[in-house]
């Protein structure tokens, strides 16, 4: 082989390697130096709810560990679809994250014909932040002091027991549908515009029954304005271990963190590590407890693995309930 030919090939190979290295270097540098500017947590619900408060608590602690501001931006609309879609279309550069509730991410795709996002393809799961148990509560004047008594009363009085929800397709609506199907009872669903309005009317005696998140209804239980019949879980809640467990209605109502699909894995890993450290502190665990939420052990892999089955479960429940929003 001529000397000049061998030299040319070696020269071409060296140039190719240098080109690849030069292209990879900026990306690697960007990941190593991340973050270099403020980070945004998009919350697809209004300010003041449990999801918003959890996002702000985590953001404040994350600022201290990363050395950059973490801004919480509320983008409510269409039961969470507006803000979720915004993050799905954001650049996967590690500066935009979604902090959302389980219902918006796993129920909405079955409830709406168009959400503006794909819950799997458009996101990289980072971790679950916390779970909030749902309670079955009744007005104190209602003639049932246990779950079994409620079921017996509903069977003896078909279509006469009304239950309130936060709206069609919401988690407390679907829990009512699960109760009806699994126990073979006929109850009437009355949708409200929000969980607070539903709980308020049950307190007032306008309707006898509702499901509500722990932070939403437990203050009424503590004051004697509502009676709790059980927690929709497969195990007792550490927040109130004396409440009976309703295993047949077990749901996991989580608050989770997602990044746009394509966000570099080193950034995902760093965010997960930093937030895990924050969630493990006694101060944050106590803060979650005051919100009626429980810290949860989660990582990107386990969170991602749980989503397909959860989406399939809620699609089945929504389809059986007949709830649809177009």
TrEMBL record:
<comment type="similarity">
    <text>Belongs to the UPF0065 (bug) family.</text>
</comment>
<protein>
    <submittedName>
        <fullName>LacI family transcriptional regulator</fullName>
    </submittedName>
</protein>
<dbReference type="InterPro" id="IPR005064">
    <property type="entry name" value="BUG"/>
</dbReference>
<feature type="signal peptide">
    <location>
        <begin position="1"/>
        <end position="30"/>
    </location>
</feature>
<keyword id="KW-0732">Signal</keyword>
<dbReference type="InterPro" id="IPR006311">
    <property type="entry name" value="TAT_signal"/>
</dbReference>
<dbReference type="Pfam" id="PF03401">
    <property type="entry name" value="TctC"/>
</dbReference>
<dbReference type="InterPro" id="IPR042100">
    <property type="entry name" value="Bug_dom1"/>
</dbReference>
């Amino acid at each position: 082989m001529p000397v000049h030919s061998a030299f040319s090939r070696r020269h071409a190979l060296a140039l190719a390697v240098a080109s690849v290295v030069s292209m990879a270097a900026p990306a690697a540098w960007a990941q190593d130096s991340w973050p270099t500017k403020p980070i945004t947590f998009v919350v697809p619900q209004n300010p003041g709810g449990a999801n918003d408060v959890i996002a702000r608590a985590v953001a404040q602690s994350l600022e201290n560990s990363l050395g950059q501001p973490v801004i919480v931006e509320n983008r409510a609309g269409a039961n969470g679809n507006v803000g979720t879609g915004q993050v799905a279309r954001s650049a996967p550069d590690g500066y935009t994250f979604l902090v959302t509730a389980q219902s918006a991410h796993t129920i909405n795709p079955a409830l709406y014909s168009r959400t503006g996002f794909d819950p799997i393809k458009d996101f990289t799961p980072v971790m679950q932040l916390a779970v909030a148990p749902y309670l079955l509560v009744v007005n104190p004047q209602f003639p049932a002091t246990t779950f079994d008594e409620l079921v017996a009363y509903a069977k003896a009085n078909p279509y006469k027991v009304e239950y309130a929800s936060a709206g069609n397709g919401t988690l407390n609506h679907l829990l009512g549908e699960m109760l009806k199907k699994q126990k073979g009872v006929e109850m009437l669903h009355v949708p409200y515009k929000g969980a607070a309005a539903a709980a308020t009317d049950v307190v007032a005696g306008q309707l006898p029954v509702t499901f509500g998140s722990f932070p939403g209804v437990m203050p009424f239980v503590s004051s004697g304005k509502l009676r709790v019949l059980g927690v929709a879980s497969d195990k007792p809640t550490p927040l109130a271990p004396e409440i009976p467990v309703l295993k047949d209605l077990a749901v996991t109502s989580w608050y989770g963190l997602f990044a746009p699909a394509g966000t570099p894995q080193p950034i995902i890993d760093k965010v997960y590590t930093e937030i895990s450290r924050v969630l493990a502190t006694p101060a944050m665990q106590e803060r979650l407890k005051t919100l009626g939420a429980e810290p949860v052990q989660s990582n990107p892999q386990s969170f991602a693995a749980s989503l397909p089955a959860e989406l399939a479960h809620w699609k089945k429940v929504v389809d059986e309930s007949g709830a649809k929003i177009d």
